[in-house]
Automatic annotation (TrEMBL):
This is FecR family protein. It comes from Sphingobacterium allocomposti. Residues 266-331 form the Protein FecR C-terminal domain. Residues 123-218 form the FecR protein domain. InterPro entries: FecR, FecR_C, Ferrdict_sens_TM. The chain crosses the membrane at residues 82-102. One of its GO terms (molecular function) is sigma factor antagonist activity. PANTHER family: PERIPLASMIC SIGNAL SENSOR AND SIGMA FACTOR ACTIVATOR FECR-RELATED, PROTEIN FECR.
Length: 333
């Protein structure tokens, strides 16, 4: 087989036009070098082999002199070509090895548009439970009931340690690292710190998100209007989801995250907030029997150690309401 015939066969193989006999010849030729493609899928193998073919063809072209490109051929020139093909085999072995190393280090091709698979960790706390989680960087999270967070498994190795709060409430006790800021992305804000403790509340049922700081300082970037706020210990910011209203104020540092110990402080809370606390603490749905109930406000302390029936009795007494149980919910009217 001449060099030109060999090139032609490789091009047919790469284009998928080779006959079964020609495919067997190429595969046999590969096997003679003692190297095999790693265990990749068909698409990956095709891509690698195409790249290898290009390397081979360039290697062959580079070894051909002007005299070799002439039509005449003889045995002497064929022997020379065998020597060149031996050099091509060495090129091929190097190509195999290079692609294998690239695969191992996840740098298959600088121009490759495929996204690397990122392993993500998802943690949820169900209703009626508080879950504590220690991250790889020694940061500690407390997830209130009805909460879901996500983060990359190797998040602590990135330039920023990012956590996604899909919904719920989390208290963060962040391990200080001045080189890698800790970032929490919630629906309407991004909170960035170096090392501090704070709480982010972002329940879907509530008309606002709230960030409260227990120690240190945090930077809160509000998505609407691109506003940035710096909060210190004992401060909070509340972000309206619909009207984008921002409320800043002072808070009792211990009370903002006391739910970790099962105690929740409500201060002029709406009925929606009250019902959410009871649902996350006891797993029971509290419903309003009329519009007047929905407008009521509640200031009280809810201790999870107290039985639910006693809590409901106390809550109904705040505004002289009555309660009744229907199915799996409690209706206040």
């Amino acid at each position: 087989m001449t060099s030109k015939e060999f090139q032609k066969l490789l091009r047919k193989y790469r284009a998928g036009n080779a006959t079964d006999h020609e495919v067997r010849l190429i595969n046999k030729w590969y096997q003679e070098f003692g190297d095999a493609l790693p265990n990749w899928d068909a698409q990956q193998q095709k891509k690698i082999r195409n790249s290898i073919h290009q390397q081979i063809l360039r290697a062959i072209d580079s070894t051909q002199s002007a005299e070799d490109r002439q039509e005449a051929a003889n045995d002497r020139r064929w022997r020379r070509q065998l020597v060149r093909l031996a050099g091509v085999a060495a090129v091929l072995a190097g190509v195999f090895f290079a692609f294998y190393l690239a695969r191992q280090w996840n740098i298959l091709n600088p121009g490759d548009s495929r996204q690397q698979v990122v392993e993500e960790v998802v943690v949820e706390a169900g209703q009626g439970q508080v879950k504590q989680l220690t991250l790889a960087d020694s940061t500690v999270l407390w997830l209130n009931g009805g909460t879901k967070v996500r983060f990359e498994k190797a998040f602590h190795k990135s330039a920023e340690r990012k956590i996604h709060l899909d919904y719920g409430e989390v208290h963060f006790d962040v391990k200080r690292d001045t080189l890698k800021p800790f970032v929490v992305n919630s629906g309407f804000a991004t909170t960035k710190v170096l090392g501090t403790s704070f709480t982010v509340k972002a329940y879907n049922e509530l008309p606002y998100e709230q960030i409260s700081v227990s120690s240190g300082k945090v930077q809160v970037s509000v998505q609407h209007g691109n506003q940035v706020h710096i909060l210190g210990a004992g401060e909070f910011i509340k972000i309206g989801k619909e009207n984008h209203r921002l409320d800043r104020g002072k808070t009792e540092q211990e009370q903002s995250s006391s739910w970790r110990e099962g105690v929740t402080f409500l201060d002029q809370a709406s009925f929606v907030e009250l019902a959410l606390v009871l649902k996350n603490s006891y797993g029971v749905t509290l419903a309003a029997g009329n519009k007047a109930i929905e407008k009521q406000r509640y200031t009280l302390v809810i201790d999870r150690k107290v039985p639910f029936d006693d809590i409901v009795e106390a809550v109904s007494a705040v505004n002289n309401n009555r309660i009744r149980k229907e199915g799996g919910q409690v209706i206040m009217f």
